[in-house]
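Issue 218. Parser rejects a valid record. Input:
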Amino acid sequence: MFKDRRQAGKLLARKLKKFKNEKDVVVIGITRGGVVVAKEISNFLNLPLDIIVIKKIGAPQNPELAIGAIGPNGVVFWDEGLIRRLNIDEEYKNRSKEIKNFERGELEKFLRGDKKSLNVKNKKIILVDDGVATGATVLCAVKFFRKEKSKEVVLAVPVIAKDTLLSIKKYFDAVIALQIEGELYAIGQFYKEFPQVDNKEVMDLINEKSRE
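Output the parser choked on:
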């Protein structure tokens, strides 16, 4: 169990030492909780930090159950197997995608302000989140990076569900995880302290100079 996201980031950074001071490598945190972990990695490796804003698309009767996710430039990932099992129609998919895409865009504009996103073309990406349960968010992110022609995408997370790891690892050049769990119902169960991360904290982190 991790004390908090910052401690998890520091521990994870040690597994990524080979990237320290390497050119053309960017640490990218998934908002919001992933940015706290990513900041510690960015500091330790002396690498630039950026964010990616992904919005999960929930099931009709269970918004917490992700049937997909939407990222920058309208890139969307759908869990087609789950969608078939839940018998979700195209009308719901299109409507929910439109709503979440708008919310995602507004949030990114708010978090970035005048700060432009880093160019990820031909870059090595270290994609960071505070944990992975179903994988919808990270699969959407890697789909975006591949579309933008990133050179390499490494997923780095403190904890990941075993079944999810087996199903998603083929989409990444490498997956680095401190804990692989057979049963993962909630990411917060692996942290002693797991407060909600607000927008101000994310903005402070991406504007703060490295402490290393």
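Fixed in the parser; the record now loads. The chain has a mean pLDDT of 94.
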